[in-house]
Specification:
By secondary structure, this protein is an alpha/beta fold. The protein has 12 helices and 15 strands. The chain folds into 2 domains: 197 residues, Rossmann fold, CATH 3.40.50.450; 150 residues, Rossmann fold (3-Layer(aba) Sandwich), CATH 3.40.50.460. It binds 6-O-phosphono-beta-D-fructofuranose. 6-O-phosphono-beta-D-fructofuranose binds next to β12.
Protein backbone atom coordinates (compact mmCIF):
# COMPACT_ATOMS: atom_id res chain seq x y z
CA UNK A 1 0.00 0.00 0.00
CA UNK A 2 1.39 3.43 -0.94
CA UNK A 3 2.56 5.33 2.14
CA UNK A 4 2.57 9.01 2.91
CA UNK A 5 6.27 9.27 3.79
CA UNK A 6 8.17 12.54 3.97
CA UNK A 7 11.17 11.77 6.11
CA UNK A 8 13.12 8.64 6.98
CA UNK A 9 15.94 7.94 9.45
CA UNK A 10 18.72 5.37 9.45
CA UNK A 11 21.29 4.01 11.87
CA UNK A 12 24.06 1.39 11.89
CA UNK A 13 24.24 -0.87 14.96
CA UNK A 14 26.46 -3.70 16.20
CA UNK A 15 30.04 -4.27 15.04
CA UNK A 16 31.10 -2.55 11.85
CA UNK A 17 31.97 -4.24 8.55
CA UNK A 18 32.83 -3.31 5.00
CA UNK A 19 29.85 -2.31 2.90
CA UNK A 20 28.02 -0.28 5.55
CA UNK A 21 28.83 2.94 3.75
CA UNK A 22 27.64 1.41 0.48
CA UNK A 23 24.28 0.67 2.12
CA UNK A 24 24.05 4.16 3.66
CA UNK A 25 24.80 5.72 0.28
CA UNK A 26 22.15 3.59 -1.45
CA UNK A 27 19.50 4.37 1.18
CA UNK A 28 20.16 8.10 1.02
CA UNK A 29 20.39 8.31 -2.78
CA UNK A 30 17.28 6.17 -3.35
CA UNK A 31 15.30 8.08 -0.72
CA UNK A 32 16.20 11.47 -2.18
CA UNK A 33 16.44 10.75 -5.91
CA UNK A 34 13.65 8.21 -6.34
CA UNK A 35 11.16 9.25 -3.67
CA UNK A 36 12.01 12.81 -2.64
CA UNK A 37 12.22 11.88 1.06
CA UNK A 38 14.28 13.76 3.61
CA UNK A 39 16.84 11.63 5.46
CA UNK A 40 18.39 11.91 8.91
CA UNK A 41 21.14 9.58 10.18
CA UNK A 42 21.49 8.86 13.90
CA UNK A 43 25.07 8.56 15.15
CA UNK A 44 26.55 5.53 16.93
CA UNK A 45 23.60 3.20 16.46
CA UNK A 46 20.84 3.28 19.06
CA UNK A 47 23.03 5.43 21.30
CA UNK A 48 22.57 8.39 18.95
CA UNK A 49 18.84 7.74 18.76
CA UNK A 50 18.69 7.94 22.56
CA UNK A 51 20.91 11.04 22.86
CA UNK A 52 19.49 12.66 19.72
CA UNK A 53 22.88 12.82 18.02
CA UNK A 54 22.25 12.96 14.31
CA UNK A 55 23.40 14.10 10.89
CA UNK A 56 21.15 15.47 8.15
CA UNK A 57 21.85 13.28 5.14
CA UNK A 58 22.12 14.70 1.64
CA UNK A 59 23.61 13.52 -1.62
CA UNK A 60 26.83 15.29 -0.69
CA UNK A 61 27.12 13.69 2.79
CA UNK A 62 27.29 10.29 1.09
CA UNK A 63 29.63 11.38 -1.66
CA UNK A 64 33.04 9.68 -1.70
CA UNK A 65 32.18 7.03 0.92
CA UNK A 66 31.22 4.10 -1.33
CA UNK A 67 34.53 2.25 -1.20
CA UNK A 68 35.39 3.00 2.44
CA UNK A 69 35.05 0.37 5.16
CA UNK A 70 33.38 1.33 8.45
CA UNK A 71 30.39 3.64 8.67
CA UNK A 72 30.17 7.40 8.58
CA UNK A 73 27.30 7.03 11.09
CA UNK A 74 29.53 5.11 13.58
CA UNK A 75 28.60 1.88 15.34
CA UNK A 76 27.87 0.76 18.86
CA UNK A 77 27.16 -2.77 20.06
CA UNK A 78 26.41 -1.83 23.66
CA UNK A 79 23.13 0.01 23.49
CA UNK A 80 19.98 -2.01 23.92
CA UNK A 81 17.52 0.81 24.64
CA UNK A 82 15.01 -1.69 25.99
CA UNK A 83 17.52 -2.74 28.66
CA UNK A 84 19.87 0.21 28.80
CA UNK A 85 22.91 0.12 31.10
CA UNK A 86 23.21 3.28 33.22
CA UNK A 87 24.20 4.37 36.69
CA UNK A 88 21.69 5.39 39.38
CA UNK A 89 22.27 8.33 41.74
CA UNK A 90 24.41 6.10 44.01
CA UNK A 91 26.70 5.02 41.17
CA UNK A 92 25.20 1.51 40.92
CA UNK A 93 24.78 -0.04 37.49
CA UNK A 94 21.10 -0.37 36.65
CA UNK A 95 19.24 -1.38 33.48
CA UNK A 96 16.24 0.64 32.27
CA UNK A 97 13.90 0.67 29.29
CA UNK A 98 14.62 4.04 27.63
CA UNK A 99 13.02 3.21 24.28
CA UNK A 100 10.37 5.93 24.74
CA UNK A 101 13.12 8.57 24.73
CA UNK A 102 14.20 7.28 21.32
CA UNK A 103 10.63 7.26 20.06
CA UNK A 104 10.16 10.85 21.24
CA UNK A 105 13.31 11.82 19.29
CA UNK A 106 11.95 10.18 16.14
CA UNK A 107 8.71 12.13 16.57
CA UNK A 108 10.61 15.37 17.18
CA UNK A 109 12.38 14.94 13.83
CA UNK A 110 9.14 14.03 12.05
CA UNK A 111 10.52 10.64 11.05
CA UNK A 112 7.94 8.42 9.32
CA UNK A 113 10.11 5.30 8.99
CA UNK A 114 13.41 4.02 10.36
CA UNK A 115 16.00 1.92 8.49
CA UNK A 116 18.01 -0.18 10.94
CA UNK A 117 21.21 -1.77 9.65
CA UNK A 118 22.65 -4.44 11.93
CA UNK A 119 23.10 -8.01 13.07
CA UNK A 120 20.94 -10.05 15.40
CA UNK A 121 21.25 -7.82 18.51
CA UNK A 122 20.43 -4.68 16.52
CA UNK A 123 17.60 -6.43 14.70
CA UNK A 124 16.14 -7.70 17.98
CA UNK A 125 15.75 -4.10 19.08
CA UNK A 126 14.35 -3.31 15.61
CA UNK A 127 11.69 -5.93 16.28
CA UNK A 128 10.94 -4.32 19.64
CA UNK A 129 10.59 -0.85 18.10
CA UNK A 130 8.26 -2.35 15.47
CA UNK A 131 6.19 -3.85 18.29
CA UNK A 132 5.87 -0.34 19.73
CA UNK A 133 4.42 0.91 16.45
CA UNK A 134 7.53 2.38 14.77
CA UNK A 135 7.71 1.84 11.01
CA UNK A 136 10.92 -0.16 10.91
CA UNK A 137 12.79 -1.77 8.02
CA UNK A 138 15.84 -3.95 8.75
CA UNK A 139 18.97 -4.62 6.70
CA UNK A 140 21.12 -7.61 7.78
CA UNK A 141 24.79 -6.91 8.45
CA UNK A 142 27.70 -9.01 9.67
CA UNK A 143 30.99 -10.38 8.45
CA UNK A 144 29.95 -13.68 10.06
CA UNK A 145 27.26 -14.29 7.38
CA UNK A 146 25.11 -16.00 10.01
CA UNK A 147 21.85 -14.02 9.82
CA UNK A 148 18.99 -16.48 9.22
CA UNK A 149 16.59 -16.07 6.27
CA UNK A 150 19.12 -14.46 3.95
CA UNK A 151 21.76 -16.17 1.83
CA UNK A 152 24.41 -13.51 2.28
CA UNK A 153 25.22 -10.45 4.34
CA UNK A 154 27.38 -7.59 3.05
CA UNK A 155 30.86 -7.35 4.57
CA UNK A 156 31.30 -11.10 4.45
CA UNK A 157 32.93 -11.27 1.02
CA UNK A 158 35.37 -8.44 1.79
CA UNK A 159 36.35 -10.27 4.99
CA UNK A 160 36.87 -13.43 2.93
CA UNK A 161 39.26 -11.54 0.67
CA UNK A 162 41.31 -10.54 3.72
CA UNK A 163 41.46 -14.16 4.88
CA UNK A 164 42.43 -15.43 1.44
CA UNK A 165 45.24 -12.87 1.11
CA UNK A 166 46.47 -13.63 4.64
CA UNK A 167 46.60 -17.36 3.83
CA UNK A 168 48.42 -16.64 0.56
CA UNK A 169 50.99 -14.66 2.53
CA UNK A 170 51.32 -17.37 5.17
CA UNK A 171 51.95 -19.96 2.45
CA UNK A 172 55.18 -18.38 1.29
CA UNK A 173 56.65 -17.99 4.76
CA UNK A 174 55.41 -21.45 5.81
CA UNK A 175 57.06 -22.94 2.71
CA UNK A 176 60.34 -21.11 3.30
CA UNK A 177 60.65 -22.33 6.91
CA UNK A 178 58.93 -25.73 6.61
CA UNK A 179 56.51 -24.56 9.28
CA UNK A 180 53.02 -25.27 10.49
CA UNK A 181 51.07 -22.02 10.27
CA UNK A 182 47.76 -21.41 12.02
CA UNK A 183 45.45 -18.54 11.07
CA UNK A 184 42.58 -17.80 13.46
CA UNK A 185 39.64 -15.98 11.91
CA UNK A 186 36.36 -14.48 13.20
CA UNK A 187 32.81 -15.73 12.79
CA UNK A 188 31.53 -16.37 16.32
CA UNK A 189 29.65 -19.69 16.32
CA UNK A 190 29.35 -19.93 12.54
CA UNK A 191 32.19 -21.32 10.44
CA UNK A 192 31.51 -19.56 7.13
CA UNK A 193 34.55 -17.29 7.25
CA UNK A 194 36.95 -20.11 8.14
CA UNK A 195 35.38 -22.47 5.61
CA UNK A 196 35.18 -20.27 2.52
CA UNK A 197 38.27 -18.29 3.51
CA UNK A 198 40.14 -21.53 4.08
CA UNK A 199 39.06 -23.03 0.76
CA UNK A 200 39.94 -19.87 -1.17
CA UNK A 201 43.30 -19.59 0.62
CA UNK A 202 44.05 -23.26 0.07
CA UNK A 203 44.28 -24.28 3.73
CA UNK A 204 45.15 -27.92 4.42
CA UNK A 205 43.13 -28.03 7.64
CA UNK A 206 39.93 -26.05 8.33
CA UNK A 207 38.41 -26.11 11.80
CA UNK A 208 34.89 -24.77 12.25
CA UNK A 209 32.40 -24.69 15.16
CA UNK A 210 29.96 -26.96 13.34
CA UNK A 211 32.50 -29.82 13.16
CA UNK A 212 34.23 -30.42 16.53
CA UNK A 213 37.82 -31.52 15.93
CA UNK A 214 40.01 -34.32 17.21
CA UNK A 215 43.49 -32.82 17.69
CA UNK A 216 45.10 -36.23 17.01
CA UNK A 217 43.56 -36.25 13.52
CA UNK A 218 44.78 -32.73 12.89
CA UNK A 219 48.30 -33.70 14.01
CA UNK A 220 48.20 -36.81 11.81
CA UNK A 221 47.38 -34.70 8.75
CA UNK A 222 50.43 -32.50 9.40
CA UNK A 223 52.67 -35.55 9.87
CA UNK A 224 51.28 -37.31 6.78
CA UNK A 225 51.91 -34.21 4.67
CA UNK A 226 55.45 -33.94 5.97
CA UNK A 227 56.21 -37.60 5.23
CA UNK A 228 54.77 -37.14 1.71
CA UNK A 229 57.18 -34.28 1.11
CA UNK A 230 54.90 -31.30 1.83
CA UNK A 231 56.94 -29.87 4.64
CA UNK A 232 54.59 -27.07 5.56
CA UNK A 233 50.94 -27.13 6.61
CA UNK A 234 48.40 -24.31 6.78
CA UNK A 235 45.45 -24.35 9.18
CA UNK A 236 42.50 -21.95 9.01
CA UNK A 237 40.74 -22.00 12.36
CA UNK A 238 37.45 -20.35 13.27
CA UNK A 239 37.44 -18.52 16.60
CA UNK A 240 34.41 -20.67 17.52
CA UNK A 241 36.12 -24.01 16.75
CA UNK A 242 36.00 -26.52 19.59
CA UNK A 243 37.45 -29.96 20.29
CA UNK A 244 35.21 -33.05 20.30
CA UNK A 245 35.54 -33.34 24.06
CA UNK A 246 35.62 -29.65 24.96
CA UNK A 247 34.16 -26.22 24.52
CA UNK A 248 34.91 -22.92 22.78
CA UNK A 249 37.84 -20.75 23.88
CA UNK A 250 36.64 -17.51 25.44
CA UNK A 251 38.91 -14.46 25.16
CA UNK A 252 36.89 -12.17 27.42
CA UNK A 253 33.49 -11.35 28.80
CA UNK A 254 32.37 -7.84 27.90
CA UNK A 255 29.75 -7.08 30.55
CA UNK A 256 28.78 -3.82 28.89
CA UNK A 257 27.63 -5.66 25.78
CA UNK A 258 24.28 -7.44 25.46
CA UNK A 259 26.10 -10.30 23.73
CA UNK A 260 28.93 -10.50 26.26
CA UNK A 261 31.05 -13.48 25.20
CA UNK A 262 34.06 -12.68 23.00
CA UNK A 263 35.69 -15.73 21.47
CA UNK A 264 39.41 -15.99 20.71
CA UNK A 265 42.58 -17.92 21.40
CA UNK A 266 41.72 -21.35 20.03
CA UNK A 267 44.35 -20.99 17.30
CA UNK A 268 47.07 -20.41 19.87
CA UNK A 269 45.83 -23.36 21.93
CA UNK A 270 45.94 -25.63 18.89
CA UNK A 271 49.46 -24.34 18.18
CA UNK A 272 50.64 -25.42 21.64
CA UNK A 273 49.09 -28.84 21.20
CA UNK A 274 50.60 -29.37 17.75
CA UNK A 275 54.00 -28.31 19.06
CA UNK A 276 53.81 -31.28 21.42
CA UNK A 277 52.26 -33.76 18.98
CA UNK A 278 53.98 -32.85 15.72
CA UNK A 279 57.33 -31.16 16.39
CA UNK A 280 58.97 -34.23 18.03
CA UNK A 281 58.05 -36.29 14.93
CA UNK A 282 58.77 -33.87 12.08
CA UNK A 283 60.93 -31.22 13.72
CA UNK A 284 58.63 -28.49 12.39
CA UNK A 285 58.07 -25.21 14.18
CA UNK A 286 54.47 -24.12 14.74
CA UNK A 287 53.40 -20.47 14.47
CA UNK A 288 50.08 -18.77 15.11
CA UNK A 289 48.49 -15.58 13.69
CA UNK A 290 45.17 -14.01 14.67
CA UNK A 291 43.83 -12.01 11.73
CA UNK A 292 41.50 -10.06 14.06
CA UNK A 293 39.83 -6.80 13.16
CA UNK A 294 41.56 -6.53 9.77
CA UNK A 295 38.67 -8.72 8.61
CA UNK A 296 36.19 -5.96 9.37
CA UNK A 297 37.94 -3.09 7.64
CA UNK A 298 39.69 -1.96 4.49
CA UNK A 299 38.41 -1.13 1.05
CA UNK A 300 35.01 -2.68 0.33
CA UNK A 301 35.26 -5.18 -2.51
CA UNK A 302 33.15 -5.09 -5.68
CA UNK A 303 30.72 -7.76 -4.49
CA UNK A 304 29.92 -5.97 -1.22
CA UNK A 305 29.56 -2.60 -2.95
CA UNK A 306 26.95 -4.09 -5.28
CA UNK A 307 25.24 -6.11 -2.53
CA UNK A 308 25.16 -3.07 -0.22
CA UNK A 309 23.59 -1.03 -3.01
CA UNK A 310 20.91 -3.67 -3.59
CA UNK A 311 20.12 -3.95 0.12
CA UNK A 312 19.96 -0.17 0.62
CA UNK A 313 17.79 0.66 -2.37
CA UNK A 314 15.42 -2.24 -1.70
CA UNK A 315 14.96 -1.13 1.92
CA UNK A 316 13.69 2.26 0.73
CA UNK A 317 11.34 0.54 -1.75
CA UNK A 318 9.98 -1.41 1.24
CA UNK A 319 9.28 1.83 3.05
CA UNK A 320 7.44 3.19 0.02
CA UNK A 321 5.35 0.00 -0.11
CA UNK A 322 4.75 -0.09 3.65
CA UNK A 323 6.56 -3.39 4.27
CA UNK A 324 7.24 -2.49 7.89
CA UNK A 325 8.55 -4.76 10.64
CA UNK A 326 10.42 -6.60 7.90
CA UNK A 327 14.03 -7.18 6.84
CA UNK A 328 15.48 -7.25 3.33
CA UNK A 329 16.75 -10.66 2.27
CA UNK A 330 18.58 -12.16 -0.66
CA UNK A 331 17.39 -15.64 -1.60
CA UNK A 332 18.74 -17.36 -4.70
CA UNK A 333 19.97 -13.98 -5.90
CA UNK A 334 16.53 -12.35 -5.61
CA UNK A 335 15.67 -9.55 -3.21
CA UNK A 336 12.77 -10.27 -0.91
CA UNK A 337 11.53 -9.63 2.63
CA UNK A 338 10.97 -11.53 5.83
CA UNK A 339 9.38 -10.43 9.10
CA UNK A 340 12.07 -9.46 11.61
CA UNK A 341 10.19 -11.53 14.20
CA UNK A 342 10.95 -14.57 12.06
CA UNK A 343 14.66 -13.74 11.97
CA UNK A 344 15.48 -12.90 15.58
CA UNK A 345 12.70 -14.71 17.38
CA UNK A 346 9.18 -14.09 18.46
CA UNK A 347 7.73 -15.26 15.16
CA UNK A 348 7.43 -18.55 13.29
CA UNK A 349 11.11 -19.47 13.60
CA UNK A 350 11.05 -19.25 17.39
CA UNK A 351 14.22 -18.65 19.32
CA UNK A 352 15.98 -15.43 20.10
CA UNK A 353 19.78 -15.20 20.29
CA UNK A 354 22.63 -16.56 18.23
CA UNK A 355 21.32 -20.07 18.83
CA UNK A 356 19.17 -19.29 15.80
CA UNK A 357 22.13 -18.25 13.66
CA UNK A 358 22.56 -19.63 10.13
CA UNK A 359 25.40 -22.11 10.37
CA UNK A 360 27.46 -24.33 8.08
CA UNK A 361 25.93 -27.68 7.18
CA UNK A 362 28.63 -30.25 8.04
CA UNK A 363 27.20 -32.53 5.34
CA UNK A 364 26.70 -29.73 2.79
CA UNK A 365 28.26 -29.17 -0.64
CA UNK A 366 30.95 -26.78 0.60
CA UNK A 367 32.30 -29.10 3.28
CA UNK A 368 32.06 -32.06 0.90
CA UNK A 369 33.95 -30.22 -1.85
CA UNK A 370 36.71 -29.32 0.61
CA UNK A 371 36.92 -32.90 1.86
CA UNK A 372 37.01 -34.16 -1.75
CA UNK A 373 40.19 -32.18 -2.36
CA UNK A 374 41.82 -33.47 0.81
CA UNK A 375 41.06 -30.75 3.36
CA UNK A 376 40.90 -32.17 6.89
CA UNK A 377 38.28 -30.93 9.37
CA UNK A 378 39.53 -33.03 12.26
CA UNK A 379 36.40 -35.20 12.39
O1 LIG B 1 29.98 -10.46 14.75
C1 LIG B 1 31.06 -9.86 14.12
C2 LIG B 1 32.34 -10.05 14.90
O2 LIG B 1 33.39 -9.43 14.21
C3 LIG B 1 32.66 -11.49 15.25
O3 LIG B 1 33.19 -12.19 14.16
C4 LIG B 1 33.59 -11.29 16.41
O4 LIG B 1 33.61 -12.43 17.24
C5 LIG B 1 32.96 -10.14 17.13
O5 LIG B 1 32.23 -9.42 16.17
C6 LIG B 1 33.93 -9.22 17.83
O6 LIG B 1 33.20 -8.25 18.53
P1 LIG B 1 33.83 -6.94 19.16
O7 LIG B 1 33.90 -5.91 18.08
O8 LIG B 1 32.87 -6.55 20.23
O9 LIG B 1 35.18 -7.32 19.69
Amino acid sequence: MKQNIKKIALLTGGGDCSGLNAVIRAVVRTAILKYGYEVVGFMGGYHGLYLDEYMDMTISTVSGIFHQGGTILKNSNKDNLFNFRMEDEFGNVVYKDVSDVAIANLKKHGVDALVIIGGDGTLTSARDFARKGINVVGIPKTIDNDVPATDITFGYRTALDHIMLALDALHTTAFSHDRVMILEVMGRNAGWLALEGGISGSADVILIPEIPYDIQKVAQKVIDRYKRGSKFTILCVSEGAKPIDGDVTVKMIDKTSADSVRLGGVGELIGEQLRKLVSPVTGQDVRYTNLGYIQRGGVTNAFDRVLGTKYGSYAVDMIARGDFGQMVTVKNDRMSTVFIEDVVGGGKMGETSRGGARRVNPQGDLVNAAKDIGVVFGD
